[in-house]
Specification:
The complex is a heterotetramer of chains A (324), B (259), C (442) and D (358). Chain A is mainly alpha-helical and 324 residues long. Chain A contains 14 helices and two strands. In chain A, α3 packs across α12 and α3 packs antiparallel against α13. Chain A starts with a helix and ends in a 14-residue tail after the last helix. Chain C is α/β, with parallel strands linked by helices. Helices cover 43% and strands 13% of the residues of chain C. Chain C has 15 helices and 13 strands. Chain D is mostly helical. In chain D, α4 packs parallel to α6, α4 packs across α10 and α7 crosses α8. Classes of the chains: A mainly alpha (324), B alpha/beta (259), C alpha/beta (442), D mainly alpha (358). Chain D: It is a multi-pass membrane protein.
Amino acid sequence: MLYNIFIDPFVQMVQMPDLLVQTLWEGLVSGVLYALIALGFVLIFKASGVFNFAQGIMVVFSALTLVGFYEKFSAAGFSGHAAAFVALILTAGVMFVLAMLVERVVLRPLVNQPDIILFMATFGITYVLIGLGEMVFGGDPKQMITSELFLPSGSVDVEMLGGLVSFQKIDIAAAIIASAMIVGLALFFQKTRIGRALRAVADSHKAALSVGISLNQIWVIVWFAAGLVALVTGIMWGARSDVSFALEIVALKALPVLVLGGLTSVPGAIVGGLIIGIGEKLGEFYWGPLLGGGIESWFAYAIALLFLLYRPQGLFGDKIIERI
Amino acid sequence: MTATSETLLAVDGVSLSFGGVKAITDVSFDIRKGEIRAIIGPNGAGKTSMLNVVNGFYHPQHGRITYKGKTRPRMRPYQAASQGIARTFQNVALFKGMTTLDNIMVGRTLKMHRGLFWQMLRYGPAMREEIEHRRVVEDIIDFLQIESIRKTPVGKLPYGLQKRVELGRALAMEPELLLLDEPMAGMNIEEKEDMCRYILDLNKHFGTTIALIEHDMGVVMDLSDRVVVLEYGHKIADGTPEVVKADPKVIEAYLGVGH
Amino acid sequence: MSLKNWLYALSATAVLTLPAVHDAQAEDSIYVPLFTYRTGPFAGSGTPIANGMHDYLTLLNERDGGIGGVKLIVEECETGYDTKKGLECYESVKPKKPVIVNPWSTGITLPLIPKAAVDKIPVLSMAYGLSASAKGDTFPWIFNPPATYWDGFTQILQYIATQEGGGIEKLKGKKIGYIYLDASFGREPLPLIEQLSKELGFEAKLYPVAAADMQNQSSQWLSVRRDKPDYMILYGWGALNATAVKEAVKTNYPMEKFISIWWPSEDDAKGAGDGAKGFKTLNWHAVGADFPLLADIQKHVVDAGKSQVSGKDKVGQVLYNRGIYNSMLIAEAIRRAQEITGNKVVTGEDVRRGLEGLNIDDARLKEIGLEGFTGAVKLSCTDHNGHFSTFVQSWNGTTYEKVSDYIAPLSDKVGPLLDADAKAYAEKNAPWPARSEACDAS
Amino acid sequence: MFYRETGQFKQSYAADQAVFPILQDRLGLAAILLVAFVVVPLFGNEFLLASVMVPFLILSLGAIGLNILVGYTGLLSLGSAAFMGVGAYAAYKLSTIFPGVNILVWILCSGFFAAGIGVLFGLPSLRIKGFYLAVATLAAQFFLQWCFVRISWLYNDNPSGAIEVPARTLFGLAITGPSATPVTRYLVVLVIVVVMTLLASNIVHGRIGRTWMAVRDMDIAAQLMGIRLLPAKLLAFAVSSFYCGVSGALMVFLWLGAAEPSAFDIKLSFLLLFMVIIGGLGSMIGSFFGAALIHILPIVIRGLPEALGLPIAAATVEHLTYLIVGALIIFFLIVEPHGLARLWQIAKQKLRVWPFPY
């Protein structure tokens, strides 16, 4: 038993290094995608203190909107790359409208309410989006328009370490786009005026207000940014399986990522995503069989829980200093 | 009751730091049974930290604290409470969702013993216990003249009243040592006078030993038997109000002479 | 005060509407509720099934004026594939005296199994639900034709054996991977696998996928790469199927060796692109709209705007036809009940007898307009399943084509398990009522 | 005018310490109980009893359990469905191992198992707070659910993988299984829920409840009052899980009749949390309001088109239900963030001064 836990997995890793590389790669890819969802959470939490439960459904909703627009165009005889990109832009527009609505209808009337109330309100948003999404797009799963968006398919198979490691091109693209997105957001928040304002808001709402920053504007921007992140996540994850409401469940995986990284930290979301992604793949692949497999559903949470016991504020979270 | 010479609590060479920041450096003083002891000093002098050390919320890196003749290694706040140390806070730390009555009843927690079973039934022993403690609490409510806000959630009360409820909650613990952190901050003259009277009454009639932090020098000089002065975490003076008032280091600290 | 008024209004509506569950069933009609799920994470599979079921029964109403001259009242109740909502549906239709219910979820079927006998409503759980309910002696009110998940598993095994060029003895020494939804549905074959792998000498590799990780299967498929099973068997549902096919393609698993139970749809294979060609599933009915009955549906229902299908191409898809098959069983059971009792307006009790006496032979299929659509269906008092043969169909990039003959299940292997389970169920649920319903001579 | 405590003087602290010190409240409660115990069973149809009232009461009990944790002690938990599952599986195991003992005994005992597991998963609460704790409780949710699927001993190796409820009786009357009538099931659930609500109300109004609320409102100050955080939080986890456990056992035995592990999935945890927040954190009656809004309102909305004769497809109704419930959640939060219970208080306050506005 002990051998199976402590020695055998490592023996396997050494004996089949190609599979280890493949596992790490798969972990990395799902980690990047978890990180993307977590990033959406972090942006909103930082700027408005809202733990946005609707991020998961926003992923589904944006992906459905994108595919829905495209289907409308192709039904009208326009298809191909141009139509896909028009659909992409229109979807971004929808996400912007959504951000405006959320700010106007939900956040503004609920300003200064306790966290848990705002958290609850995002459940309301989730319900509305589920109802609306299913009513408009129907419940049947749709195919993500990957090739129309110039996303590659197929794989790059590299012979190494005595085996074949295959890298899916779509996964490589996902990793690149996600990284670009993260870098872009980081630059946006570091270098631009709005970014500075956002960081000010994240530090203190009142102080930011007192120097003339418009909270409402900031909120629209972060919800829009989170919506864009959701759209990218939806495209990537939709390409891996299909676009349906089942995707919402995947978004729950972002929660352990989030607490691992710290609710307020962008680098935390990324590092946390990678740790959870790689950790759960390694756990499932090498240790899962000991428990009959399928431990991935809770393994990520267990990692997060153990880590939290050691560091309650997460990897990069603000240290909690208790004072009276 | 006036101060005796018996030492209730002795702080001996205590140093406390957070990371690299030194909050308290090698401070020693004592509190005698029955006295009113004031701790004063400019902002950031480490006064509140000192109180936090005394009731076990912070653990000093160096130094010893002897309470009732016993030196304790590392004490938890609830242990301090069970040994008779109660306190109020600089920024009112009431239980905002609860009524005045319930807040003060929380102070009786340590004195109530009926377990879950009787609590569940709310009958027999549990009810008797509840009523018995309600009487004590009503006495405190009478004493502090807050009868009319008995059933008001404290979050809705004005600041002055909140401070009074907080004092009541501390009193409900029937403390031997009561630590008051700026009990009169933000109060108007009348409220201050009321609060002074309560403090003096407490000390005189119930013999409660009191350590208080206060910025209002007039109040401090009138109330306290002895004063300890902190500056940047160091003790710079200790003695009766008259002595301290005349100490050049204290004057310098407060007026900034020579800087 | 406006708020309070609002609340009053709300509570008033609540009081008024709740008892309004009417029992207004006309005397000259037969009430057939359809439990469907066009919403929720499984809507992708639920919608075509719902459309198929609904359209067939609507056709009977539109074209024939019902069954035997009695109009059918067809009503959908949305379950969202959720057990609690399903039970709510059951309670809401019960006062309207339904002659049959189709829970379309194993989770909803299980609580209904004991209730059916008490409420006198037969339950038709077509190829899902509790396998042991095939035993009519123990479960007189439950019907699960045409095959159980165990039957299906042995059918897949036999197909594999024929691919290896022989009988089931050819499985010896093979490595067979089983990827499944880690819930009761996917776990059901596990005891059978354990038994058969010993008896037939193949090695079984298990790859459970938790419901929450349906769309996140890369670890399972990494394990597949490591273990290199000779064949893969899939028991999935909803997004699990689509993701599994995509991952299999990614892993370069040979698709012709990847065989699923009967639930994947066209959409599940389509998403994986050309790589999915050769992906196989079991089925027991034809795919496509090339049948007189389906043409009638097209004419009387779809073109008349009485269907909810989103496009004409949806008619004839795998799961749509699954719904057609389900409704055919319902309609034929009602017809048979009319024959047996001589009554035109039948009750749940009558339809139970109709199901037991169900005998759809090829001639009858031709009459219905479904010649060659499926094999003959004949149930009996003791056998509520039939354990009929199924065939293997293969994905060619646009549709599924039949690639094997009908394969009978290994009844000698499955039979004893089924008996044992039915017995165990009755014992565990003691006091389980003994069958009191008489058998009709057929 | 009619709802006024003027003139009701308390002669003793005992009378003043009562949970309902005001006469009208006591009368109102009596009226509600009368309706619940007499009117509903007499006049309610089967659908009302079996699909509306029984689930409503069982969910209310679960919501009370969660409210003890979230509302009274301030510990956010998303694992309550798993604790309900522990109760259900414990009751199932106990009732099959000892079939001779009355099922109600085992349903109540199942709470202790849930409490034990709850305490175990409550341990991290000393160090982890807020949303971080919520995610930690998700570990309980997913791990326990995995156990329900994987440990076949828990469901007696049933090939269906589900727990099936055998028929059991009380005083010769079937209370579980298919022949238990909705009225019997309703009355059994009602008695259990009323008694347990009363006990919970007693707990939260006494020393232990004050301890929890103190921990919720300001844990540091609570410590300085002599409250030990870990025991206080663990007790809250225990009592909360006990209630959830009993509610879970009731759910399987008196409502569903058989349950797969997915009956205790994360969705149920979220639903309970909705009920608690919408109903009112830290309010017993709020738990009932919340359960009513979240469980009964969708049923009403689903029933409306049919009752009004509108030809709307079942699926569309479901979409609309989601939309409306979501919108109502937001609406109620905006109108009164402190939940329906606070609205109730405001209504009472208005009644008190009626017909004059002040």
